[in-house]
Sequence to fold (391 residues):
Amino acid sequence: MNDLAPLLTPEGRALLDEVRGTAPADELAVATRLRRGHPAGLVSAALGQARLRQRAAAKFGAEDAERMFFTPNGVEQSTRASVAAHRAERLRALGVTSVADLCCGIGGDAIALARAGIRVLAVDRDPLTAAAARANADALGLAGLIDVREADVTEVDTAAYDAVFVDPARRGGRGRIFDPEAYSPPLSWAVRAALEAPHAALKVAPGIPHEAVPAEAEAEWISDGGDVKEAVLWFGTAPGAIRATLLPGPRSLLGRGLPDPQVRSVGRYLYEPDGAVIRAHLVAEAAEELDGGLIDPTIAYVTADALRATPYATAYEITDQLPFNVKKLKALLREREVGILTVKKRGSAVEPEELRRKALPKPQGPHSVTVFLTRVAGAPTMLLGRPAGLM
Fold:
């Protein structure tokens, strides 16, 4: 997987079609058969690319993934298509018609931008990665809008573009990088590049400390299907604004600078805020919509007496509140004939799988229960309940 060129030949493309959908258990037999008529290296490359396409389907959809070209890092680090499309639409709505996509990777964001009608300069310094981005633009019929350049992004002149998008590398030889100044390029460089453009978007890790967000930036945390995917620093929009955006939708909760919610006793309903809401520090805004309070000053669970529809939190009806005690929980589950136990935790050191194994060693019975391991007013507590449905 250090050269895509053989896979772009007629023979390589024919092999890719032939190995499409090959199951891992069948790879050896397929490779043995194909090596009778094709170079062994090309067969291995085609099977490797097929595996990457199968992995990439979750991010890009099967239809696009089957036509695209990937590197192992590209699959791991590329933006999910739904998130890239949301960002592209925001830029299009700002009137942006051209973007310099710096650290473009295999081209996921460039593809979304081009599909929004935006002209893209896609830059990456890694030859294989740039080749994949170029091949993907061609494979999806977007080569007319995407110009791929192999270069050091710090040496690229972006003055001719309406906006800059920077997606710094956040993984190194030892895994994920948490210090924004250890990104490649560093966040400080990306901010300087952003401030020189009319509009800019910087993709950063969702765990970025709020104090690291520049005063000139709007900060947006994005989740897709309930999973937090990334944070974006926007320039040229609303400096100082904070928002949590939930996909599909999009639905955006804007920060209003509310004080922390009051702590109150556990009501009939418990609301688990979406991860983007929590990361954006907008639990107070979500709680206000629910007329709710916190169960503990340090725990991001909201409780209320009424059931209200909200896209920003998942509601559970609470049936029991118990001090943490595994034996009592085990007896209660047996008494209620519980066969399915879902364990969630926040503010507890107990591992969910450990509790599930001890409290329900032999699942039996038709009923299901969700147990929350948490703290209520500082005390270790178990809250039992079930997902609440709105009639």
Remarks:
- The chain has a mean pLDDT of 93.
- The longest helix spans residues 40-60.
